């Protein structure tokens, strides 16, 4: 699943258990969307996108893994970007 599709899934308004929370929100927050007694936790911030460039090898980057709540990958289109080392 790519990042955009994952975001659409998270924002979907389907409520399987009719507890008032969207199923995608429940999954992202660690609760069970099939149980009305399982409620999402809002005590911690949850990154929906978490990408880390520090371990990438230099060169073309056609796919970048998202380690956030949405999971999945970001895939380059026709113009594949390149990873470079930058000195500051």
- Based on secondary structure, the structural category is alpha+beta
Count up the helices: 2
Low-confidence stretches: none
- Reading the helices and strands in chain order gives HHEEEE
Mean pLDDT across the residues is 81
How are the strands of the biggest sheet laid out side by side?
A: 1-4
Please tally the β strands and state the result. 4
Shape, please?
A: elongated
Rg from alpha-carbon coordinates: 17 Å
- State the share of residues found in helices, binned by percent: 10-25%
How large is the share of residues in beta strands? 5-15%
Tell me the major beta sheet. 2 strands, antiparallel
Q: Give the N-to-C terminal Cα separation.
A: 35 Å
Structure description:
The chain is of the alpha+beta class and 88 residues long. 17% of the residues lie in helices and 11% in strands. The protein contains two helices and four strands; from the N terminus they run ααββββ. The chain is elongated and about 50 Å long. The mean pLDDT is 81.
């Amino acid at each position: 699943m790519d990042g955009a599709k994952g975001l659409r899934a998270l924002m979907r308004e389907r409520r399987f258990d009719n507890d008032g929370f969207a199923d995608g929100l429940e999954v992202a927050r660690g609760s069970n969307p099939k149980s009305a007694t399982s409620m999402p936790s809002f005590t911690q911030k949850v990154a929906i996108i978490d990408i880390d460039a520090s371990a990438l090898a230099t060169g073309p980057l056609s796919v970048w893994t998202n380690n956030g709540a949405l999971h999945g990958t970001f895939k380059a289109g026709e113009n594949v970007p390149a990873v470079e080392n930058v000195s500051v």
